[in-house]
Amino acid sequence: MKALQRTLAILAALCLIVQSVRHGYVLWLEPRASALDRYDQPLKDEIASAASVDDLLLRYEPIRKEVDRIKADRRAADPKARFEDEQDAEPFKSEETLRSAIASWEERAKEIHALRFYWLVGLLLAGLGVACYLRINRWAGVTLLIVAFSEMVYWTCPSFLVTSTREFDRLLVHKLTLSLASLVLLGVSTRVLAVFEERAAHA
């Protein structure tokens, strides 16, 4: 039992430490600028500086109206008009860029909501696991703890698609904070359950 507990604790700690370091690197050290950015300015600057999705919608709405007007005018002249070949021309390019930025922002907001919920579920399961281990059945307690820390590790794992928005940075801050909190909780759990104590192992 102790050998299994130690192995699982070491693996969980390894995952949490590695991903916490990555979160910190992406948040503070990873270069996000590109040599091609100068060709897409100032739109990318506006997207990066947006404080909320409403800011992006305010920028998107007039461009979308302009795109719809151009499409309507061309279809009035030619009902079979197609626009696939004009996606790199303005205002179609800006409309698509802003649409993607809004969709990305909303996706990050959903991730933050799910992250909070499932991490709290993991926290609850960890508390039940420790209580079950100490008072009812050790194997049942270990099972609950495995599920709990699996939830925490999975939902705080790195996001590999980096986007330069405040909502993405907010997601990274949440993941880094909860990864470190999970690591602390893992340390407390192993301490309470005496996982690495030699005397407990030979008792």
Task: Provide a quick synopsis of the model.
Helix content is 76%, strand content 0%.
What can you tell me about this protein's structure?
This protein is mostly helical and 203 residues long. It has one domain (2-202). The chain is 76% helix and 0% strand. The chain has helices at 2-29, 43-49, 53-77, 92-135, 138-155, 166-192, 198-202. Helix 1 (2-29) packs antiparallel against helix 6 (166-192), helix 4 (92-135) runs parallel beside helix 6 (166-192) and helix 5 (138-155) runs antiparallel to helix 6 (166-192). The longest helix has 44 residues, at 92-135. It starts with a helix and ends with a helix. 21% of the residues are buried. The model has no long low-confidence stretch (mean pLDDT 86).
Topology:
Blueprint: H1 2-29, H2 43-49, H3 53-77, H4 92-135, H5 138-155, H6 166-192, H7 198-202
Helix pairs in contact: 1-5, 1-6, 3-4, 4-5, 4-6, 5-6
Q: Key features?
A:
203 residues; mainly alpha; 7 helices; 76% helix
Shape: elongated
Radius of gyration: 25 Å
Tally of helical segments: 7
Q: Bin the strand percentage.
A: under 5%
Structural class of the secondary structure composition? mainly alpha
Oligomer: single chain
Q: What does the largest sheet look like? A: none
| Uncertain stretches | none
Span from first to last CA? 12 Å
Helix content: over 70%
According to DSSP, the number of beta strands is: 0
The chain-level mean pLDDT equals: 86
N-to-C series of helices and strands: HHHHHHH
Count of structural domains:
1
